[in-house]
Specification:
The chain has about 290 residues and is of the alpha/beta class. The chain has two domains: about 120 residues, Beta-Lactamase, CATH 3.30.450; about 170 residues, P-loop containing nucleotide triphosphate hydrolases (Rossmann fold), CATH 3.40.50.300. Bound molecules: guanosine-5'-triphosphate and magnesium ion. The site of magnesium ion has 5 residues, from α4.
C-alpha cells in the first residue's frame, strides 16, 4: 500500500504538496528523518539514491524532478520494482509540470496528477454455486437493490468499483459463473482475494467446502472469506454451524437486504486490513473504502 506522497522543493526542502491514501497521515517528522538518512546515504554513494530506505514500518522512495523531489511512503510489503516504476513515471511528469506551471497550480492539481501513478487494481473474486447470491452481493456492495428473480450470470461478470478504493488500491470484483467456474478460475492468475458464497443450505455447504479445499490447495497464500448468505430463509443453517463444517469462520449475510450493506463493507474492510497487516481504523467502512 502506498500511504502517501510528498513533493518538496529541492533547494529549500519545504513541502509543495502531498497526497494521502490511508487514514493516518505520515507525520512530517518521519519524512524529515528519511531526508536526513537519504542525505547521509548519498554521501556514501550516489548510486544509493535510487534505493528505497526502510525506517520502522515504512519504506521511503524518492526521485529528483527538476526543482522538486517527490517522495513515496509505502508499507514494507509493496514490491520495490512496482513502486520504482510508479515513482519514475510520476517524477517524469512532475519534472515537466514544475518547469511549466506555478506552484499554485501544482498545489491545486497535485492529487489529480498523482492519481494516474498511484492506484493498482486489487482483484476480489466472488465464487460459489449458481444461485447462491453472488450477483446480489455485488449489487449490495455498490448499494444497489438486488434483482428479485434469478438471472444466471453468463460467463464472467467483472465490475471495477470506481467508488471503492482501499488505500492505494482500486477494487475490482469479478463474479465467476456457471458450472465450469472452477476451470475458468484456474486461468485467472491475478486474484488477490476470494469471497466464497454459500446459500446456507446443507446441500450447498458441502459443495462450498469442496470448493474451499480446492482453492486452498491451488492458491494457498490467497485469503478466503466465507459468506453464509440467505440467512433470512427459514431453512438457513446458522453461521456458527457453517463455520464448524467449513473449518473457517462464516459471516452471516442477507444479500437482498440493503440494511446489510454496512456489514458487508465492514467484513471487506476487516479482511483487507488483515491482508495488509493494518489495524482497522476507527472510521466508518464506507468512508475508508472510498478514501481518496
Ligand atoms: N431470500 C434471499 N434471497 C436471496 C439472497 N441473496 C440472493 N437471493 C436470491 O437468490 C437468487 C439468485 O441470486 P443471484 O445473485 O443471481 O445468484 P448468483 O450466485 O449470482 O447466480 P449465478 O449467476 O447463476 O451463479 C435471486 O433470486 C436473488 O434474489 C438472500 O440473502 N436472501
Ligand atoms: Mg450471478
Amino acid at each position: 500500500m502506498i500511504y502517501s506522497t510528498v513533493l518538496i522543493n529541492a533547494a529549500s526542502r519545504r513541502k509543495i504538496a502531498s497526497s494521502e491514501y490511508w487514514a493516518d497521515p505520515i507525520p512530517r517528522a518521519k519524512i524529515n528523518k528519511y531526508l536526513r538518512e537519504f542525505n547521509s546515504l548519498i554521501e556514501k554513494s550516489e548510486r544509493l539514491k535510487y534505493k528505497p530506505v526502510v525506517l520502522e514500518e515504512f519504506k521511503f522512495f524518492s526521485r529528483e524532478c527538476g526543482t522538486g523531489i517527490v517522495i513515496f511512503v509505502t508499507d514494507l510489503h509493496e514490491s520495490d520494482d512496482d513502486i520504482i516504476n510508479k515513482i519514475n513515471r510520476a517524477a517524469q511528469s512532475l519534472r515537466s509540470i514544475l518547469g511549466k506551471e506555478k506552484t499554485g497550480y501544482i498545489k491545486k492539481h497535485y492529487d489529480e496528477i498523482m492519481s494516474q501513478y498511484i492506484y493498482s487494481p486489487l482483484v476480489i473474486a466472488f465464487v460459489g454455486e449458481s444461485g447462491v447470491g453472488k450477483t446480489s452481493l455485488l449489487h449490495l456492495l455498490i448499494g444497489k437493490q438486488a434483482p428479485e428473480e434469478h438471472i444466471p450470470t453468463i460467463s464472467l461478470n467483472m465490475e471495477t468499483l470506481e467508488e471503492l478504493r482501499f488505500g492505494s488500491y482500486q477494487l475490482l470484483v469479478i463474479e465467476f459463473a456457471g458450472d465450469d467456474q472452477y476451470e475458468r478460475m484456474r486461468d485467472f492468475t491475478v486474484i488477490d482475494m476470494f469471497f466464497l458464497i454459500t446459500d446456507s443450505s446443507l446441500k450447498n455447504i458441502i459443495s462450498a467446502k469442496n470448493m474451499y479445499s480446492q482453492i486452498v490447495k491451488d492458491c494457498p497464500d490467497i485469503p478466503i472469506t466465507v459468506i453464509a448468505n440467505k440467512q433470512d430463509l427459514a431453512n438457513a443453517l446458522d453461521p456458527s454451524a457453517i463455520s464448524k463444517v467449513m473449518g473457517i469462520e462464516a459471516r452471516s449475510m442477507v444479500a437482498v437486504d440493503l440494511a446489510f450493506r454496512n456489514k458487508l463493507l465492514g467484513n471487506l474492510t476487516e479482511v483487507l486490513c488483515n491482508h495488509f497487516d493494518l489495524e482497522v481504523p476507527e472510521i466508518p467502512s464506507e468512508e475508508l473504502l472510498s478514501f481518496i
